[in-house]
Amino acid sequence: MDNGKLRVNPDAFLSRVEFGAHQETIDHVNRKIFRAYRGCNPNNIPNDIFRLRHQVYCLECAFLQPEQYVDGLELDDYDDASTHFAAYTMDEKLVGAVRLVQPQVPKPYPFELHCEVFSDYDFPEREQAAEISRLVVKKSHRRRRADSVLGVPGFVQNNEAGVEFDPAVDRRDRTSPMLLLGMYREMFRHSEDTGIRYWFAAMERSLAHALKKMGFRFMAIGPEANYYGSVTPYVLDLHDLRRKLATSNPTLAAWFAEKPPVVEHAHPSRIHVVRKPGLGNDIN
Question: I need a labelling partner for 104 at 20 to 30 A (CA). Which of 31, 39, 152, 227 fits?
């Protein structure tokens, strides 16, 4: 113990061996480990992701019939055309997952199977677009959408006017959207690295409104449809997002651009943590 803080060796909680070609980042402020898995080799994707999807989509929301899936794992034909993103707690418990789907022509995007688009909407090139799909968060880590800006860098609550966001203090998983934003940040970085400019998403208007308050201004490209509930198809231009965040919320833009330490797996039995200058080992 040192001044009331427990000094933690990162190697103690980064013992998971590499799953194929996956990337891992450690966000100490968010108290999360974020991992990305390429769906081209589905055997390398942890079953915990598919198990959480089964829990949410089949058992909690009853969008899908649980008897159609084997061993409590929800998989579909788009998983092998996706990059999967997962959020773990520091003790290696999965708390959230999402995927970016990039199907090859002529296979449609998942939302196209259930939603129509406006006649004047022109789709971008396939290599420039992906669909956000199968967003799931463990029940214990969900929060009310009305609290959607609590804890977001650059925002304060009405009753906290003038109080700056301090990521070292505000770590409230169940009352802030940092878990969701953390996964969005990983998707954003992946998209930047792979040339993806546009995100499609079929979501409830209430979620689109909450994301808009955080700076993600999705544009509706079709009418409301019944797709695992009443949803509307949207698109987000990431180039436009980057420009607008830089002017409207530079704090959030900086948080998105900042890269936490990256874990490099040079050898299955060795884990090397690349740290940003000035980042210590103290975890509150």
Answer: 227
* Structural contact between residues 99 and 83, judged by C-beta atoms closer than 8 angstroms: yes
For β-strands 262-267 and 23-27, DSSP reports them as antiparallel
Pseudo-torsion of CA 79, 84, 86, 92, nearest 10°? 70
pLDDT tens digits, 145-161: 433 433 444 444 444 33
Classified as helix, coil or strand, 102 is coil
Task: Tell me the two tokens of residue 83.
Answer: 């990059």
**Three-class secondary structure of residue 61 per DSSP:** coil
> Which residue carries 């707690």 as its tokens?
89
Q: In sequence order, which ranges of 67-216 are alpha helices (DSSP H)?
A: 178-194, 205-214
Dist. CA 271–CA 33, nearest whole Å:
14
Against a cut of 0.85, is the pTM above it? no
Beta bridge partners of 27: 32
